[in-house]
Amino acid sequence: MDSKPLIPAPADPYLLFQQWFDLATLQEPHLPEAISLATATKAGKPSVRMVLLKDFGPEGLVFYTNGASRKGREIADNPFGAMCLYWKNLGRQIRAEGPLSQVSSAQADDYFAGRPRASQLGAWASDQSRTLPDRAELVKRLESAETRFANKNVSRPDYWIGFRMMPEVIEFWQDVPNRLHDRLVYRRQASGWTTERLYP
User: Which of 30, 44, 70, 73 has its CA 20 to 30 A from that of 82?
Assistant: First the structure.
């Protein structure tokens, strides 16, 4: 067995993040940007779901959602989360943990404006995470949104917002046979990032 680590350790974890994400974009067939997001209530009761990572870099990791959804309410009460990207074809995952904050209205407007019109209308129709009496009610709300925005641009609902995670920890995980995986962890310090390897 080669004793050298498989994962390089550049000083900036986002360089490695970009390299892995670019490769996943080429080799993963469906939604390489899909990311599991864990949040928790003020009492610490967790929940997890899949969201789409829409931006990343030194400014943080960004996703968008309905702020009145369960995740939005939990973030309001407990603004800290954990994320995990997993790419089966590559045998790789990236985990991140850190505080969550809302992106600017201007940034949310820009992203919303670039969404497909049907998705924009769906954002108006859905009272996300709330009880739906029956499917007909959702269809009715969609038809109402279509009428409201007929022949004009769809504006962003105030509740449709973005969140940014500023990771305190980022872990890169590479699959290795016989459970001898390579794990590289970055931890944010006042002076920059430190790195360490973990046992698999």
Answer: 30
